[in-house]
Fold this sequence. Notes:
By secondary structure, the chain is α/β, with parallel strands linked by helices.
Amino acid sequence: TFREDLSIQNRYLRYIKKWMSQKFKAVVIDNQNEKFSREIKEIDTSHLKDGNVLVKVDYSSLNFKDALILNNGGKIVRKFPFVPGIDFSGTVIESEDSKFKKDDKVILTGFRVGEAYYGGFAQYAKVDSNFLIKIPKDLDTHKSMMLGTAGFTALLCSFAVKAKEELLLGEKVKDVLVTGATGGVGSIAVMILSKMGYDVHAVTGKKDKNDYLKNLGAKNIIDRKEFEGESKLLEKGIWDGVVDTVGGAALTKIFAQTKPGGIVAACGNAGGIKINTNVMPFIIRGVKLWGIDSSGSSIKRREFVWGEATKLIDFSKVKSFTKELSFSELLETYPKLLKGEFFGRAIVNPNK
């Protein structure tokens, strides 16, 4: 009958529409014949072969790892051509997993997206549903990427410090040191730890940023040179907790100055990957070195931490040091981040 024919035709059209390739913009890096390139290209959704959830990307963000990858692959990306971007937020378009439905708002950080799987520097991304969480009701896609991987890492570090008094049932945390305090992770950690009620001591080499750090909640500013040079096996215990975003030689003195039962949350290596220390802080004072792997954090941990974000973050302050970039502006900005010439957070709008 005519009605049956029309029904078959409609089903056929829906099938064609579902599988028809849709063009979209993306940043594409390539490395052919040892010639590295980065371009804004138009590709189609048929190139998105990873995962089971298609997401329209609202925002991504520029992190130090992104800058390394955009520069030359950073010895991280192994397959080319490739779409980088280690985080994004957006809206579900299609899902093969019942946990997510069309129009759900989602966040992705880590899980090697933007390293091994096509990432967030695109208008669309397709990822494994096990990499996604739904955005808590009091957040949105813009705010979540104002924080991005840096903010998520800062939250993980701050809760690691808080574990001294809650999880480990130790003495109440009072004095907390934050290294690399003007960076993305450091700045947000200063804000969070201050909101938690701690006295935050911010370490920086940028003397012109003292007022900025005090506005975020830092009680005291310390020149990073204070942590250079030789350290005793143990020094006077000063810090209940430490958020170290830098790594390297300064950690030797930091461990020696951490109080009994104190926690050092380490998440960065811009200052170097090697540390020269001894066992005394760990076996005499019970100092804990807590490594923060934001990329591999469990889904339950992610849901908890993102759910706490709005209680601990002043988004008006984050907005004051956040710049919104188009793809072309992203390609102009990442070299400044590598040279230490970019200050604050950078949110990437693929539709700008």
